[in-house]
## 1
Amino acid sequence: MKALIKLHLKENIGGKSFILFGILGGLVTLLLLTGGEVTMANNPTEEIISKFGTQWKFLSIIAGFASVTISMGTIERHRKEKRTELLALHGLSIDKQLFAISIGNALVSMILSTILALVLILIILFGKAPTNLIGFITAFITYLISTGMIALIVSVLNMFLPSIVVAILGVFIVIIGSFHQIIQGMLLNNNQFISYIIAKVMNILPPLDVFNRLTRSLFFLEFNCSYDLIVFLIFIWMTLTTVYLTSKGVGRYEKI
C-alpha cells in the first residue's frame, strides 16, 4: 500500500496545476496583504490582523478548490486503466488500493496547499506578523489537514460517482462549508420548517469556516478555541473512518 501511495505522489506532483496554483496563491497573498489600506489610529495592529485573517480565509478556499481538482477523478481513472485487477493479482486488495489512493490524494493536496501558501510563509518569516513560531506551525497544520479532509471526502464520492459530478459536489462542499455557520444561521432565522431541515442536514457537511476560525485563532495566539478544536478533531476521526469503511465496502462489493 505504501508503494501505491508513493506512486500516486510521483504521478501527481510537479504538474502544471502546481505551478498554476502556486502563482495564484502568490498573487492573492500579495493582493490581500498590500491592497486596501485602512488607517486605525486607536489600534494600529487591527489592520494587520484583519489582512492576515482574510488571507487565511481566501487561501483555505483556494486550497479547497485545488484539492477538489486534484482528487475528483483519480479513483475513476485508476479503474479505467485496469490497475485494480493488476495490483490485485500482485496481492494488493481493492479496498487497500482505494484507501491508498485516498490518502495519496490528501497528501498531494497538502503539498499543493503548501505551495499556495509559500508567499504568505515568506511574508510571515521576514515581515511583521502578529504571531510566533508555535502559533504559525499549529495554524499551518490545521490549514493543511483541512485541505486533506476535503481530498478524502472527494475521494469517497469518486468511488461511486463520475468525476464531473464529483467536481460539482466538491465545489459545492467547499463553498457551503466555507460559509457554513452564516448560511445555517440564515436558514434557522427563516422560521420555516423546510429551512430548519436544510440547516440540520448541513451538519453532515464539513464546517470549513470553523476549521478556518481555528487556524486564525491559533495563528493570532488565541488559545481559547476549545470548541473549534473539538469539532476539528471529531471531523478528522469521522472522515478517516468513513474513508476506511467505504473502501472496505466498495472493495468487498467489487471483489464479488
Note: Residues 106 and 148 are 4 Å apart (CA to CA).
## 2
Amino acid sequence: MNLISIYKAFLVSILLFSTSVAVAEVEHDFQRLVPNYVSERYTDDLNKLKQRRLIRALVVPSRTDFYIRNGKISGLVVKLLDNYEKSLNKGIKKEDEKIQIVYVPIDFDQLIPYLLDGKGDIAASFITITGARTKLVDFASSHTRTINELVITNRNSNISLSSLEDLAGKEVYVLKGSSYIEHLEQLNKTWPDNPIKIVEAQEHLSSEDIMEMLNEGIIDITVVDDFKANLWAKVLPNIEVRDDLIINSSGFVGWAIRKNNPELKQDLELFKNKVKKGTLLGNILFNQYYGRDQKLANLRSPEEREKFSKHVELFKKYADQYELDYLKLIAQAYQESGLNQHLVSPRGAVGIMQLLPSTAADKNVDVANIKVLENNIHAGTKYMSFLKTRYFDDPEIKVEDQMFFALAAYNAGPANV
C-alpha cells in the first residue's frame, strides 16, 4: 500500500465523520509516514533495530487508531507507540541517539505479509490472535481485554435473525483478511449444504467503512469486534449490534511480530503490561478513543453539515472547470482545514485548502488573494489539477488512481509519491 491507499482509506468516508482529536492527544509530523516502497527490507530483532535507531510500525488507517489531521498523524495506536518510543529512549539524552518509530500505512490484509517480508517491524493493529495466525507470527498481548466478534445488522432491513443458524445462505460482508472470515468459515462446516456467503470488502475499506455502508442500507449484515461496534452504534442510527449473535467469543488481540524477533516480543509485552486494561494509562487511552463518541459525531451535527452545504457549490464550480471529483476535493479540504477559511498553519498555509501563498502565486496556479474563500478553493483546485496532469497523467496509472496520487502529492509533495 502506498500513499494512494492511505488517501483512499481516509477520503472514502471523511465527508461523514470528523477526525477531530481529544485534548492532550499526541500528534506527529506527516514526515513520520514511510510509504512501503521506500522501506528497506530487513528482519532485525530489537538490538539491531536500536542500532538503526529506527522501528517501523505497520499501521492501518482508521478514524480512531491511525489518521491524519491537518498534516499531523494521530490516533490510539500513535499514542501507544509514542509511549513505547519514550520507554525505548528512557535515559538517552542526545536527540541524534534516540530511537524513532515511523509509520508504514497499509491495508489490514497486508499486515502479516508485509511483516514477514521485512517491510515493517511491528504490525501495530488490534489483530485477533488465531491458531492460523500464530503459525506465522508471534503476538505481543496483555491478554486482559477479551473481544467478542458480533453480528451487526441494519435495523431497517427485512432480514430476521434469531440465531446464528439464520445466517445460513445469507450474504455477510466483512473486512478483508480479518479473523471474521476464519470464524464464519468454521460456522459453515455446521451447515455445508447452505453456507454463509462470505464477501470480503475491498482492501481499502475498514470495519468502520463497512458499518457506514450497513447504516446506509448498502449491505445488510457484517461482523465487527464488540468495542468498535458499540462505539459506532452511538453515531450510526441504523445499525443494530447483536450481542446475542457471537461469531467468536472471548478472543484476544495483540500486535504481531516475527517469530525470529524474541527480544522485540519480550520488550513489547513488558510495555503492553503497562498500558493494559486496568492500568491507569491503559484505561485513559482506551476510553479516550473508544469510550466516547463526540469526535465521531461532529460531522453529523447540523453545524458541520451546514459547513458542507455552504461550500459545496464552489467546489462543484471549480471541480467542473478542472474536471475533478468535487467530493474528493471537499474531503481533502476537510482534512486540511476542517473547512475553516480562517486557518493559517505554522508553515503559513492559508485557508480552507491550506495553500501556501507561494504556491498560489506560482505560474502554474496564478490565483491572487487566497485569503478570499472562493479564490482559495479555486487555487487549491487548480493546483490539484496541475499535480494530476503534470505528474500522474500516465496510461500505466489507472484513471481512478490518478486523482488519489494527486491528493497524496498535495500534502506530501509529488517527489515523495
Note: The chain has a mean pLDDT of 83.
## 3
Amino acid sequence: MQILNFIMALVECPECKKQVSNTAKVCPACGYKLNTEMVKKRNKVIKRSILFALIMAVVVGLPIYISYEKERQEEARISWERYLEEIGKPQSYLEVHYVLNGTDRCWEPIDFVALRIRVTSDELNNVPFKESKTYINWTDYARRKK
C-alpha cells in the first residue's frame, strides 16, 4: 500500500488516519496541521528505496541479459557455419541412391520424367567425375546403368 500511496502522492494523517495529499499543509478531514518535514522525509526515503531497487535490477539484470545475448549470437554463428558447410559439400552418391531406391516398390518409367545428377566438385566420395549427366526418363537411366 505504501508504493500505491507514493505513486498517488498520498500520506496518512497522524490524527484521523485518513489519506491526505502530501502537499497539503492541514488535513481536510480533521484540520490537523501536518508536519511538512515529516512528509518530505518519508517521501525522500521512499524515493531512495525505489531508486536503489531500480539500480539493483539493472546491476543484476544487465549481466544476465548480456550473457543471454552472447549465447544467442554464438548459437546463430554455429548455425550459420553449419549452413555454410552444408552448402559447400558436394552431393553424395547416397543421396542419389536414396532418390532412386528409396522405396520398396518397383520403379516404372513414368516415375522419372527427368533426373539430373549434378556433381559440384571434381571428386565425389573420392571417386572422380568428369561431367554432369542428365537422364531423360527411367528407361534411359536403366539403359545407361547397364
Note: Residues 111 and 138 are 7 Å apart (CA to CA).
